[in-house]
Design a protein that fits this description.
Distance between the termini of chain B: 27 Å
Largest interface: A-B, 27 and 28 residues
Oligomer: heterotrimer
Largest sheet of chain B: none
Helix content of chain B: over 70%
Shape of chain B: elongated
Shape of chain A: globular
Chains: A mainly alpha, B mainly alpha, C alpha/beta
Strand content of chain A: under 5%
Distance between the termini of chain A: 32 Å
Order of helices and strands of chain B: HHHHHHHHH
Number of domains of chain B: 1
Radius of gyration of chain A: 20 Å
Order of helices and strands of chain A: HHHHHHHHH
Helix content of chain A: over 70%
Chain lengths: 251, 221, 219
């Protein structure tokens, strides 16, 4: 246990994190751009037009990954918040705070693209009876609440603690979101991509979707690292290693 | 157990000594329902389908309005600090305050709701179900709300932020509760959604004191 | 005065190790270290805003310091919150009493709050405490009908009632008249004689025996 803790401590130490994240970023960016290119080609050109929805379904290549990411980012945020709360690891705290607005943006994109998809498919921009749309909206409110709470509390150490607690409490909301799809009758398609059932969509449509999902994940990783680096520099601005970087000695 | 009862009695005693304020949640509840009817001027057949939602929204808003009282006065006169550095477990104290808050705000609303439900045109059976959902659901509102208040009690103007924080957490309760009544009005069985509501109540009452006491410790520090 | 009261059973000393506290980009105090033995009082002095209240709150465990820790009997207070709080009474800037409750009701609640997991019995009864604080005539008065000085005395009555060995008092003499100041000073002297510890901030000088009182200036 001691060894794991020491490993975490070493990798989580600010100068080390700054160095290796700086080394990884160019590679991540390259792969991310590549995956986006492949995924978009696959989704917009390669995949066949849907039998009923023709070409308007193609927006799922943005909508679905964005929706998945909105929930994934929330989980990452809640977990790093829990780590920061229990073990007081500064880097966890920074990652949690940096994830908040990224997650909010993904949620917003999911909602807007979902709405755009809804218009030609079901005839409405918004459907109040749809549980998944509604819970995505609630997720957006949760994110806004987190960002709002953090900026409202002046003492930033207290603010980070408050936001960790809020994020953990909101996590309970996510299973309830999933349950409501089953409990309440909605317009939404049933879940078509799951780890356990065989997917009910064509493989040629599925593969670009998964590629796009991966591309979005990398995008999140890149933005998260960049924001965390920034936040770290600002917090440690008085320390020696930051001063070295400013002077131009560091990487 | 002694400390739980002491704090419960204390909060109830303090509320009774401000008797006029006890009416506020109930008045607001009635007002919202009356305003809905005045604003919609709908036919009775339409109104009765909307009744469960109207009553529940009114209950939710009145809970939201009264949440601030839970910790604010204790925060301001230093009693909250004393509770936190006392040797008693803070979560037990918070649970006592949640129950006291429910008795002062949620319970009166639940008790007068049947009258208003009948006024909106609900049948006797539907009113019974509405009453049950409120009885189970209003403690959930107090419990979940306590987390939001605990996080914002230290802020000077935490009012709007409180609503943003608490509403996403309230929405599942609203959906399940009003859905239960609507389902029963259509004649379908409601055991499933009632069980979910009861599970929510048990879960929220057992878990939110922990979250709230952590948030209070943060707010007070 | 009560001469036959036994000594407190607690003999552990309280120490602060390299405490640092920050407020809005400037350090209030850095590397603050001191040790307090049973029977001693620490008199905190300093200009307004120098961090006296923050230090008191850190010592109580209400806030945590940005760096450093507080130890009681050698162990950090974080690891022994319950035992530490059993021995602690804190009277901050606000009195911590409910205005809508009577004097007796307020004290009863304070007693229950201090009882702790061990269900420590209350040896001193409420009437005796109220007499000692000069509040016996106001037993059933609502706190909102008391003067500011009387409210302060009620807040300080907590320390006496709960028989705790560590007192942390933030400006205890605020709003007190000469009689009140006298009561508090002899209260603190008795407490120190019983091997209790006290950490007090005060703008005024306290009439405590010099060999028991140490000064700490935060400016």
């Amino acid at each position: 246990m001691n060894k794991i803790y020491k490993w975490f401590h070493q990798w989580g130490s600010p100068p080390t994190f700054y160095k290796w994240s700086g080394q990884w970023l160019p590679w991540l960016t390259f792969f991310c751009v590549a995956l986006f290119a492949i995924g978009l080609y696959g989704g917009l050109v390669y995949a066949p037009a849907d039998y009923q929805q023709k070409d308007s379904f193609r927006i799922i290549y943005i909508h679905v990954p964005a929706a998945w990411m909105s929930m994934f980012v929330y989980l990452v945020m809640a977990i790093s918040g829990a780590i920061a709360l229990i073990w007081h690891i500064k880097l966890s705290e920074i990652m949690m705070l940096s994830s908040a607005s990224i997650g909010a943006s993904f949620t917003f994109i999911a909602l807007v693209t979902g709405s755009i998809w809804g218009k030609p498919t079901w005839g409405t921009w918004w459907e109040w009876g749809d549980a998944r749309l509604l819970s995505e909206l609630m997720l957006l409110f949760l994110y806004i609440g987190i960002i709002g709470l953090y900026s409202a509390i002046e003492d930033k150490r207290k603010a980070a603690e408050a936001v960790s607690i809020l994020a953990l409490v909101g996590t309970v909301n996510i299973p309830i979101i999933h349950y409501s799809v089953i409990f309440v009758n909605t317009l939404h398609q049933g879940p078509t991509v799951s780890m356990f059932d065989s997917p009910s969509i064509d493989t040629r449509m599925l593969i670009p979707l998964l590629i796009m999902a991966l591309a979005f994940k990398l995008f999140y990783g890149i933005v998260l690292l960049m924001r965390s680096r920034n936040e770290l520099l600002w917090r440690e601005r008085r320390s020696q290693w930051v001063k070295n970087i400013i002077k131009g000695d560091g990487t | 157990m002694n400390i739980f009862i002491t704090i419960l009695k204390r909060d109830l005693l303090l509320a009774v000594r401000h008797r006029t304020e006890l009416l506020n949640p109930m008045l607001f509840f009635v007002l919202v329902i009356v305003l809905f009817q005045l604003g919609m001027r709908a036919k009775p057949a339409v109104l009765v389908t909307l009744a469960p939602a109207i009553v529940w929204i009114a209950a939710l808003l009145s809970a939201l309005l009264s949440l601030d009282h839970m910790f604010r006065s204790d925060m301001e006169d230093g009693a909250l600090e004393q509770m936190i550095i006392s040797t008693q477990p803070t979560s037990l104290l918070v649970l006592a305050k949640i129950i006291a808050h429910w008795i002062i705000t949620g319970l009166p609303v639940t008790l007068i709701a049947p009258i208003l439900g009948m006024m909106l045109g609900l049948t006797f059976d539907a009113t019974q179900i509405l009453f049950l959902t409120l009885l189970i659901g209003t403690p959930i509102l107090s419990a979940i709300g306590s987390i939001g208040v605990a996080l914002t009690v230290g802020l000077r103007r935490g009012g709007v932020l409180l609503s943003i924080l608490v509403l996403p957490l309230y929405v599942p309760v609203l959906i399940f509760a009003s859905q239960t009544v609507t389902t029963s009005m259509s004649g379908y069985p409601i055991t499933a959604s009632m069980s979910v509501l009861m599970a929510m109540m048990v879960l929220s009452l057992s878990l939110s004191p922990w979250a709230s006491s952590a948030a209070l410790r943060m707010s007070v520090s | 005065m009560r001469r036959d009261i036994p000594l407190y059973s607690n003999t552990a000393c309280l120490s602060a190790q390299k405490l640092c506290a920050e407020k809005q980009d400037r350090w209030l105090f850095e590397n603050l270290t001191f040790q307090l033995e049973p029977g001693e009082m620490l008199h905190l002095k300093g200009a307004n805003g120098s961090g006296k209240t923050t230090l008191l709150r850190i010592l109580c465990g209400l806030t945590t310091a940005d760096q450093g820790e507080v130890r009681w009997g050698g162990k950090p207070i974080k690891q022994q919150r319950d035992e530490y709080h059993t021995q602690l009474s804190y009277v901050g800037h606000s009195d911590g009493i409910k205005q809508d409750l009577s004097v007796t009701e307020n004290l009863k609640i304070a007693a229950v709050l201090a009882r702790g997991k061990q269900q420590k019995p209350i040896p001193v009864d409420i009437n005796q405490t109220l007499s000692a604080m000069g509040l016996i005539k106001k037993k059933h008065t609502f706190a909102h009908d008391l003067s500011a000085g009387q409210c302060r005395r009620l807040a300080l009555a907590r320390c006496l009632l709960n028989e705790t060995s560590i007192w942390v008092l933030d400006e205890p003499l605020t709003a007190l008249d000469k009689q009140g100041v006298g009561i508090i000073e002899s209260m603190i002297n008795d407490h120190l004689n019983r091997n209790g510890m006290a950490i007090v901030t005060s703008h005024q000088d306290l009439n405590i025996s010099k060999d028991r009182c140490r000064d700490l200036n935060l400016s």
